[in-house]
């Protein structure tokens, strides 16, 4: 009897242990979902995007621009002369009064005054518009969670249309503001060109001015290229969404019955890939990658053919590749391969055949992309995955192989998994997509009903925690540098302004005025660049919603549930895609709302009084003593505004550091605390893979 009792006890212990693991995996999945609510993800997006979408860039050049315009008003009160010595054949396009340099300076000031007024009004409207997006998003989610398809078909388009209308209105407001700043730059540019054309008459500092004009032209060219990239980004997104539906359909059709969890893991990889793509394109919208050359990362010994958008498309495959490698890793138990689970006796098929097919599908998709380092790395992962699956397929029917071959396969799987994690970490670094992501709502609902969660929940959670830590550390580092650069630029421009102010009235000659105009154009150019960024943000939101309305919603309406084998069917997959896109659109709107709220507040406190003072200065009689007093007052208030904004920048930086720390502490306290202990080898492997994706060398290639 004793042996039997011992055997029964052992079976019970195994069953209890298995049950405990299921409970633990489900708790981890639930805690991950709690840490990635819509509100948490909006906060996470703001943190990760802070160095790139920071409002400081909009505001720091503004008081300086107003100060320079004030100095131009002051200068225009002195000697006047004509710049119409060598006019263009077709006449001037922007300058109205070439016979009077003073009148030209006043035209610059007037258009600058108008631009800042429009900017304040439009940014305030953008703030009010974007405040409404979360409410429409909540209603969209309520509708999506309805079981009734007719309700979704009837009411969801209205909510999405509301978001689209807001995006289009904000796009118009941002474009209008950008145009006003462009007008100021065009006037200054033409004024400088007129001065260069009169070189035989005035002839000083011409090389510096020509260089400044060339820089402005290059900046304009860069802006046009960014607009083209934005257009290409939308086409890429639409193509990816079409592929997502096709991938889901073909994968589920080829999935043997009873393999539900494998199918769910793949679908999670597809939806995460779309999230990565949208985050990557948003990053381009906020100019994370615009400092990078238009070429992608280079292959050794040859030039890359890919640009940053092509690379984002490639990196968006990282989640699917990682899911496939993790599925292979799952068959390795206690330093041996679980051959019994690997072979499906019912269907007479090796379970890794499904992964092999997915690797082949991803490889086929990657082959269409231009050559670059990212593509080479992704293809290597796919080829290695296919090789491992084919090797396993040789031994799976026998359910065994010799010890040496087993060890070789285990090492191949371990290395593949580590490389896939490294590639996924690079993907997070390049696209700024979040490391911790929620499961799509319909998928989570179905998994909760079944009581099943991924068997790799604890290991995945550790990897994601480490990724989050590395990502926020890198973000802090980049933010630190961006604030340092901002302070440095501010100091340089302020010193130039102080030098110009220290000139005696009699010393303010043509040369000083030209320097002032050059700096004015530079400062205005910086303000305009920020508005270009805003335009691309709203193009992004508008296009995401348009794609939803035309493509994903149409697929949802046309999809039949009857052909699907899983409880998580094509209708639910379409709902998850709809949610994912609506959420990303809402996320961008939330980011813009943060920027617009701060801009409006700071503009009200520190900018608009100075702009009004500039208007007053332009209307004053230059001969009256009050004029000099008003000039001094404007100078002092602009200097005060600079100091106030800088103090705000430093305060914001401190808050950012506190929020980053709080986010990591919350993850550690709520998720890391419930994880079982990990072996030192496992932790070392995770840390190595994550760090290789966030290294300085890699970052230098993308930032």
TrEMBL record:
<feature type="compositionally biased region" description="Basic and acidic residues">
    <location>
        <begin position="444"/>
        <end position="461"/>
    </location>
</feature>
<keyword id="KW-0175">Coiled coil</keyword>
<feature type="region of interest" description="Disordered">
    <location>
        <begin position="424"/>
        <end position="461"/>
    </location>
</feature>
<feature type="region of interest" description="Disordered">
    <location>
        <begin position="217"/>
        <end position="247"/>
    </location>
</feature>
<feature type="coiled-coil region">
    <location>
        <begin position="469"/>
        <end position="496"/>
    </location>
</feature>
<protein>
    <submittedName>
        <fullName>Uncharacterized protein</fullName>
    </submittedName>
</protein>
């Amino acid at each position: 009897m004793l042996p039997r009792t011992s055997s029964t006890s052992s079976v019970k212990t195994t069953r209890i242990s298995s049950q405990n693991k299921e409970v633990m995996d489900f708790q981890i999945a639930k805690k991950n979902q709690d840490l990635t609510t819509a509100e948490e993800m909006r906060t996470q997006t703001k943190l990760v995007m802070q160095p790139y979408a920071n409002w400081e860039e909009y505001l720091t050049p503004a008081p300086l621009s107003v100060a320079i315009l004030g100095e131009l008003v002051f200068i225009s009160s002195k000697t006047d002369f004509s710049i119409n010595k060598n006019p263009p054949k077709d006449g001037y396009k922007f300058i109205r009064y070439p016979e009077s340099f003073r009148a030209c300076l006043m035209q610059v000031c007037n258009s600058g005054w108008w631009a800042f007024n429009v900017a304040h009004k439009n940014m305030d409207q953008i703030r009010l518009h974007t405040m409404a997006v979360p409410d429409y998003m909540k209603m969209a989610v309520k509708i999506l969670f309805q079981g009734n398809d007719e309700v979704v078909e009837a009411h969801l388009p209205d909510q999405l249309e509301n978001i689209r209308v807001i995006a289009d209105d904000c796009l118009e407001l941002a474009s209008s503001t950008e145009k006003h700043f462009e007008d100021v730059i065009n006037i200054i540019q033409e004024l400088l060109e007129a001065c260069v054309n009169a070189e035989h008459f005035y002839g000083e500092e011409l090389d510096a001015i020509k260089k400044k004009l060339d820089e402005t032209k290059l900046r304009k060219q860069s802006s046009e290229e960014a607009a083209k990239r934005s257009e290409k980004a939308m086409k890429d997104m639409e193509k990816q969404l079409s592929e997502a539906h096709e991938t889901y359909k073909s994968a589920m059709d080829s999935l043997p019955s009873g393999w539900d969890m494998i199918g769910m893991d793949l679908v999670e990889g597809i939806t995460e890939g779309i999230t990565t793509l949208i985050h990557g394109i948003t990053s381009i919208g906020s100019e994370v990658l615009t400092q990078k050359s238009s070429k992608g990362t280079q292959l050794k010994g040859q030039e890359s053919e890919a640009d940053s958008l092509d690379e984002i498309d490639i990196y968006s495959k990282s989640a699917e590749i990682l899911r496939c490698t993790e599925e292979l890793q799952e068959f390795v138990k206690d330093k041996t391969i679980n051959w019994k689970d690997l072979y499906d006796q019912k269907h007479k098929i090796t379970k890794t055949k499904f992964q092999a097919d997915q690797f082949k599908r991803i490889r086929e998709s990657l082959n269409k992309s231009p050559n670059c380092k990212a593509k080479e790395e992704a293809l290597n992962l796919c080829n290695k995955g296919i090789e491992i699956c084919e090797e396993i397929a040789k031994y799976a029917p026998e359910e065994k192989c010799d010890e040496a071959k087993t060890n070789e396969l285990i090492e191949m799987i371990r290395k593949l998994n580590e490389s896939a994690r490294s590639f996924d970490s690079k993907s997070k670094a390049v696209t700024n997509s979040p490391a911790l992501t929620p499961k799509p709502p319909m998928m989570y609902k179905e998994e909760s009903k079944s009581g099943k969660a991924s068997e790799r929940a604890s290991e995945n959670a550790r990897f994601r925690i480490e990724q989050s830590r590395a990502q926020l550390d890198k973000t802090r580092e980049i933010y630190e540098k961006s604030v340092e650069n901002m302070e440095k630029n501010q100091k340089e421009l302020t010193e130039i302004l102080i030098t110009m102010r220290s000139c005696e009235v009699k010393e303010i000659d043509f040369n000083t005025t030209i320097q002032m105009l050059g700096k004015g154009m530079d400062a205005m150019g910086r303000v305009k660049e920020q508005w270009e960024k805003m335009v691309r943000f709203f193009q992004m939101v508008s296009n995401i919603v348009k794609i939803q309305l035309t493509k994903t919603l149409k697929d949802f309406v046309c999809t039949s549930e009857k052909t699907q084998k899983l409880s998580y069917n094509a209708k639910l997959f379409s709902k998850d895609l709809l949610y994912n896109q609506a959420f990303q659109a809402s996320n961008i709107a939330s980011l813009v709302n943060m920027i617009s709220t701060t801009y409006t507040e700071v503009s009200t406190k520190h900018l608009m009084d100075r702009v009004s003072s500039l208007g007053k200065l332009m209307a004053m009689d230059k001969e009256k003593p009050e004029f000099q007093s008003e000039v001094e007052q404007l100078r002092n208030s602009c200097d005060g505004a600079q100091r106030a904004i800088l103090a705000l920048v430093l305060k914001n930086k401190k808050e950012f550091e506190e929020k980053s720390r709080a986010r990591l502490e919350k993850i550690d306290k709520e998720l890391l605390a419930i994880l079982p202990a990990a072996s030192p080898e496992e932790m070392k492997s995770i840390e190595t893979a994550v760090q290789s994706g966030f290294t300085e060398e890699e970052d230098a290639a993308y930032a």
